[in-house]
Amino acid sequence: MRVSKKFPIAVHSLLIMARFENTDKATSAMIAQSTGSNPVIIRNIFIALKKNGLIESATGKNGGVRLAKAKKDISLWDVYSAVETDDIDEIFKFHEGSGSCAVGKNIYQLMLPHMDTALGAMRDQLRKVTLDTLTGELLTMIENQTGNCPDK
């Protein structure tokens, strides 16, 4: 199964927004630095997250991005489906089988229900994990750590 870097970068971005929701405004430059990504990539991810109602943005002096929903109401599936495809034919790429071979002409139909089940399991698992859950896990992980994340 193929998933691009957009999904973990989007989760990373949302975690920064959650972490700074009551103190600082998160900007594409701040998030680009933290993720090691180009600010243009971050802004494109923001467009998808905003289109799906996960973030809000403002320009100008008070510019920045913030969560549009409570952390408990944003699941990993919400993030995944905002920035990635859930089209089974895009996730699982199939080769063209030979129409003259019994295996070749049936491989797609044979595997499709199993791939659909796998995607369903992924969807169900990602729906169980919220941004609130990840924020708590992250805070536990970094309690005694220091690093270059734009913390305080």
Automatic annotation (TrEMBL):
Highest taxon of source: Bacteria
Gene Ontology MF terms in the entry: DNA-binding transcription factor activity
Gene3D superfamilies hit by this protein: Winged helix-like DNA-binding domain superfamily/Winged helix DNA-binding domain (1.10.10.10)
InterPro entries cross-referenced by the UniProt entry: TR_Rrf2-type_CS, Tscrpt_reg_Rrf2, WH-like_DNA-bd_sf, WH_DNA-bd_sf
GO cellular component terms attached to this protein's record: cytosol
The name this protein goes by in its record: Rrf2 family transcriptional regulator
